[in-house]
Write a structure and sequence with these properties.
Structural class of chain A: alpha/beta
Largest sheet of chain A: 6 strands, parallel
CATH superfamily of the largest domain in chain A: NAD(P)-binding Rossmann-like Domain
Oligomer: homodimer
Radius of gyration of chain A: 21 Å
Mean pLDDT of chain A: 92
Number of domains of chain A: 2
CATH class of the largest domain in chain A: Alpha Beta
Strand content of chain A: 5-15%
Strand order of the largest sheet of chain A: 3-2-1-4-5-6
Largest interface: A-B, 113 and 113 residues
Number of strands of chain A: 9
Order of helices and strands of chain A: EHEHEHEHEHEEEHEHHHHHH
Number of helices of chain A: 12
Shape of chain A: globular
CATH architecture of the largest domain in chain A: 3-Layer(aba) Sandwich
Low-confidence stretches of chain A: 302-306
């Protein structure tokens, strides 16, 4: 694959940044990748495992001379990080991010960036329940979507180049406006995560059912919730606080629907339940046909030998 | 492995029955396995794929002379099936079931069974989102739990024999009383399933976010819900109708907790959210340490190469 950028700077070295680094190396997509993380420990780990060609002790040093700067920090600190790096950005550089919320990030980051720097917010829809510099792997973005949310008037050439980087990392790229992004993600990600966190918390609270029983007997459905609810707490706190309106709207719809199903259970309305459960099955088929999940039972864990 | 029963009859030939058949064959746990399903199509499929040594056209024929009869039908029809087979049961035979609810099944089935027949309700905590006679595989119960819920005064020898069958099929066996079972399962399985069904239904309803977007961008969390919500509609309708009280109690707790988190989002209480999300992470570690799930990211789908 051809080199897309001369120098890429990764600010924040968690799951997404480390995966992007390995994907860039796999594809030969950049001449040099610099990296910075606020924590001494993370920088030491990065140096130990060869994460980034050069790990810098300040964000300013990492972004100096970079053609592309990727902000890979929790959504809540994007603005502060942008303020910190702004004076050190090279003219003509592109700044992007990987945050799960877009309208709020645009409001936080945009005002800090100097004229002549291209700001193209982004969001790769990929992740696992693991976090930190050791959790990354080159295949994370393969066949996943990366959404770009360029603000009006953004340089077309700069967008094409960022798109090429993500495509080189294995992703399909699509453009979308920020408000629509935030609503789509509230449905496909933010509300499901809050619901999973809630259910796991409820199970933990129940004193009559001991923790050890909840854990032993988790294979009956609950364990899938626990995987989602094991994601990074700081990242998710920031997501909910910055995509408040869309998340609360979807949760309102969810509660309304849950109450209707609870009433059907209470009144013994089996037809209502059966019809509802039949409808939801079809969505699963759509996801498998779209190549966004495996049809192997239980995601392939402990399934039949092929 | 040693033969445990001379003849086993499977009534109903879906995921659990077909997996049990293949596990019995793998372990040499029975001399002959007969099978019956109400639908002509299912019986024809079973004959085609060699599911059961003998597929019978009536339940009466299947249970005649069987040492063990396993009811593998939806919870809602357990009573009707018990009434149908009762006159044909061999003296000294054991009847068990695999239903996800126990108190209601005991109330439905118990009264029909003649004296001299041992009734030992059971529940293997294993499954996938697939259903039907083709979905079974011998490894389904390996390292999973099977809960036995014997009523008071049940023959100890009969319990030991049924335990040996499930252990031969790969499961760990534990005994529990019916009410406790139904509460534990409401937490670990029934409430999570209803919640997943609800969230998938909500996503399907949203017209501003098109179906195709929900499907395309599902990898961000939602797709795990769709797997759970793809389970058999009839089975789950019956579970909710027959474990009504425990399920509604847990859903009540869930709603209470969800409202508290929604309020934290609305008021911007990040500390509350962060503390909650940190606590739920610990439960995930417990499940992995207990060997009930894999630590591979995303359940191993698309993760790093080992």
């Amino acid at each position: 694959m051809a080199q897309v950028y001369g120098r890429v700077a990764l600010i924040g070295l968690g799951l997404i940044a480390s995966s992007l680094f390995w994907a860039i190396k796999r594809g030969g997509l950049a001449g040099e990748v610099t990296g910075y993380a606020r924590s001494d420990e993370t920088r030491a780990t990065a140096r130990e495992i060869g994460l980034c060609d050069r790990v810098c002790d300040t964000a300013a040093e990492a972004v100096a001379g970079a053609d592309l700067v990727v902000l890979c920090v929790p959504v809540g600190v994007m603005g502060a990080v942008a303020a910190e790096i702004a004076p050190h950005l090279a003219p003509g550089a592109t700044v992007t991010d990987v945050g799960s919320v877009k309208a709020d990030v645009i409001a936080q980051v945009g005002p800090h960036l100097p004229k002549g720097v291209h700001f193209i917010p982004g969001h790769p829809l990929a992740g696992t329940e693991h976090s930190g510099p050791r959790s990354g792997f080159a295949e994370l973005f393969d066949n996943r979507w990366c959404l770009l949310v360029p603000v009006e008037g953004t340089d077309v050439e700069a967008i094409a180049r960022l798109r090429a980087l993500w495509e080189g990392a294995g992703a399909h790229v699509e453009e979308m406006d920020a408000e629509h992004h935030d609503l789509v993600l509230a449905v496909t990600s933010h509300a499901p995560h809050l619901i999973a966190y809630t259910m796991v918390g409820v199970a933990d609270d129940l004193r009559r059912v001991t923790d050890s029983e909840v854990i032993k007997y988790s294979a009956a459905g609950f364990r899938d919730f626990t995987r989602i609810a094991a994601s990074d707490p700081t990242m998710w706190r920031d997501v909910f606080l910055t995509n408040k309106d869309a998340t609360l709207e979807i949760l309102g719809r969810f509660t309304e629907e849950l109450f209707a199903l609870q009433r059907a259970i209470r009144t013994g309305d089996g037809d209502h339940l059966h019809a509802y459960f039949t409808r939801t099955r079809a969505i699963r088929r759509g996801i498998i046909e779209a190549g966004q999940d495996t049809d192997a039972p239980n995601f392939g864990r402990g399934g039949p030998k092929p």
